[in-house]
């Protein structure tokens, strides 16, 4: 049984018939060599097939969970606006498939207009990925997050 369906290949970014055929052939080869882990197989497929196999963002309702360690001061329009902006940008970032969860720390504030950009005070946990822009934009307040069940 294949590790991925055609629909999952499409969701991973391989959408044309040629891309789907290549992905299926490569997957069959990987499975024949004993690769049975989905995450590892996807990593190898991306490496072999190149940039066309980038994962599409999840739907908003399927975004990773967000914890928020701050709230706006009632009646303070600037704070409410900043909180709304960082919630919106984190919401976009949490739709990226490698992001598993996120938190907004008390020092959260917007950093710019780009979509899915991590705000100052934003923290994300990722799976098998590095996000270079997710570091270095903070002012080093030494605020940290711990996740637990």
Strand-helix topology:
Layout: H1 6-11, H2 17-32, H3 38-49, E1 66-68, H4 77-93, E2 99-109, E3 120-126
Parallel strand pairs: 1-2
Antiparallel strand pairs: 2-3
Helix pairs in contact: 2-3
Largest sheet: 3 strands, mixed
The SSE string, one letter per element, is HHHEHEE
Global mean pLDDT: 79
List unreliable stretches of 5+ residues.
none
Radius of gyration: 19 Å
* Number of helices, counting only DSSP H or I runs of 4 residues or more: 4
- Structural domain tally: 2
End-to-end gap: 33 Å
Please bin the fraction of helical residues.
Answer: 25-40%
Number of strands: 3
If strands are numbered along the chain, what order do they take across the biggest sheet? Answer: 1-2-3
Structural class: alpha+beta
Shape: elongated
- Amount of beta strand: 5-15%
Description of the structure:
The structure is a single chain. By secondary structure, the chain is α+β, with helices and mostly antiparallel strands. It is 34% helix and 14% strand. It has helices at residues 6-11, 17-32, 38-49, 77-93, and strands at 66-68, 99-109, 120-126. The protein has a three-stranded mixed sheet with strand order 1-2-3, covered by helices on one side. The longest helix has 17 residues, at 77-93. The model has no long low-confidence stretch (mean pLDDT 79).
